[in-house]
Amino acid sequence: MTSDSYVTAAAGAAASTHVLIFPFPAQGHLNCMLQLAELLAAADIHVTFLNTEYNHRRLLRSSSGNSLPGRGPGPKVQFRAIADGLPDDRARSAARLLELDASLRARSSQAYRDLLVDLREGSGGRAPRVTCVIADGIMPFAIDIAEELGIPAMAFRTPSASSVWAYYCIPKLLQSGELPIPEGADLDEPIRGLPSFCREARSSDDPMLRFVAEVTAHSARARAFILNTCEHLEPSALSSIRARMPVTYAVGPLHALRSGSESAPARASLWREDRTCVAWLDGQPERSVVYVSFGSFAVMSRKQFLEFWRGLVGSGRRFLWVVRPDLIEEGGWTDEMESMIEGARDRDRARVVGWAPQREVLGHRAVGCFMTHSGWNSTLESMVEGVPMICWPFFADQQINSRFVSEVWRIGLDMKDTCERSTVERMVREAMEGDAADELRRSAKATAEAVRKSVEEGGSSFAAFQRLVQHIKSLARPN
Fold first, then answer.
1. CA geometry: angle 364, 368, 374, nearest 5 deg
2. pLDDT category, 10, cuts 50, 70, 90?
3. What residue stretches are annotated with the Glycosyltransferase N-terminal domain (predicted)?
4. If I label 368, which of 231, 413, 442, 466 is the partner at 20 to 30 A Cα–Cα?
């Protein structure tokens, strides 16, 4: 059955439609799935957003409730939370992703099942009984439990379509002997842009390889597949994915898809934003600032931090750097580093903050390029604003994203795994000065225009979102 078959929903279904959205408990996953929740609520669908207790507390502390969805007319997004099974003092980091996943499956699945039973019977308050689940595709148990209870489930994947397709290919690469990659092999030949866990795997039984291959294959069992991308950016990958999952909705970039809602998109920040950096940007010349942020998961050593810092200072460019409290590996922060930051701030050449309102920063006239970890949310936000990127990928899909930024879309530069000060300085100059920078800006502007058209009325993502809404409403059963 194709997605167009769902356009004619049953009369009155909208009033009784209730979707539960369950993201994997990480910043990047929360961000775009909360945006989807707000968009569905604006389309007259009741939404329950299920978070972990640990992250929901952080979300409330960082936002003070001001940036959460449900501020306009119509149904609001209700928030529910379950425990993730880990102690509060345990780091939820990229290095412990598999530990968090195992804890969710072992310790949270029963609470999730109990909540679904409650919502299925209409015991969740004023909202109608739950009629659909949209679960993060890397949590197969969330899809399976919903279907076992008779609740139709859809899978949402937060990476790029190209990354998802690369994950699909892992079993074939193992079978053909392309993986695992021998130590010392040329990583550019013959397969390009492999994710970090593929490059680091030394055995076909590598846990991370197994994890991404299994969860990606499982997504084909869901009623539909939702991706935060658009047809213009990834036509080939989307075509390949649809060969496996015909009902695939490319509805991104979600943060730019308002679909009739005039309010600004929700922000799901687990850190409190330091808005003083916007005032600092107001005082800087146009396109003079390098914005530096490595997202919510990436970490670096003290040596890497110092190489980045000295390269940025050596470039002679002003820069705004987001340095999360946990960015530097444990024990890596020193008084010398603090002194360097204070010295640059005193000269008004640099600003360092713990977290920034990223979409607002990227849209600021003073920002000339974005040094990024190439997470998919950050990549899309930079694309929409037409800001060229310097990519230092860290984990998972980021190597693929950075390769596409530099080699396919040609809207940025790929640092790969290196961060020597000379490389940092050279790439900043290339992205900010001269003919090369002019070419990057032209390409980034053209990409921004095409991506924005996709989310406007008549665009491919706008149309796909409308079909998704009708599909969801068609699943509502009469009360």
1. 95
2. very low
3. 18-57
4. 231
Q: How many residues does the chain have?
A: 479
Among left, alpha and beta (phi > 0; psi -120 to 50; other), residue 374 is left
Report the candidate in 206, 352, 369 with the shortest Cα–Cα distance to residue 291: 369
Q: What is the pLDDT of residue 93?
A: 67
Sheet with 225-227, side-by-side order of all strands: 77-82, 46-52, 18-22, 132-136, 153-157, 225-227, 248-250
Residues 294 and 416 in one domain: yes
pLDDT over 70 at 79, yes or no: yes
Q: Is the pLDDT of residue 4 over 70?
A: no
Measured at the alpha carbon of residue 304, what is the angle toward residues 303 and 306, in degrees to the nearest 5?
65
Same domain, 145 and 255: yes
Catalytic, 136? Answer yes
Structural domain harbouring 389: 276-450
Give the three-class secondary structure for 110: helix
The verdict on residue 81 lying in a domain is yes
For residue 80, give the nearest of 110, 52, 42, 40 by alpha carbon.
52
Do residues 5 and 118 touch, judged by C-beta distance below 8 A?
A: no
**Are 219 and 283 part of one and the same domain?**
no
How far out from the chain centre does Cα 450 lie? 20
Total number of domains constituting the chain? 2
Q: Are residues 439 and 459 in the same domain?
A: no
For this structure, is 206 an active site residue? no
Least confident of 149-153, 296-300, 370-374: 296-300
Instruction: Tell me the whole-structure pTM to 2 decimals.
Output: 0.89
Any domain includes 190: yes
Spot the catalytic one: 29, 56, 255, 364.
29
Q: Are the beta carbons of 345 and 352 closer than 8 angstroms?
A: yes
CATH number of the domain within which 433 lies: 3.40.50.2000
Is the pLDDT reported for residue 192 higher than 60? no
Q: 457 lies in a domain?
A: yes
Stated as kind and residue range, the H or E segment containing 413 is strand 412-414
CA distances from 1 to 14, 28, 222, 242 (A): 22, 31, 13, 12
Average pLDDT value for the chain:
85
- Residues 380 and 393: their CA atoms lie apart, in Å, by 15
Which tops the pLDDT comparison, 390 or 261? 390
Cα–Cα nearest to 215, from 256, 295, 162, 155: 155
Query: Is 478 a residue whose pLDDT tops 70?
Result: no
> Could you say which of 18, 46, 56, 136 is catalytic?
136
Q: What's the start-to-end Cα distance of the chain, in Å? A: 26
CA distance 118 to 75: 19
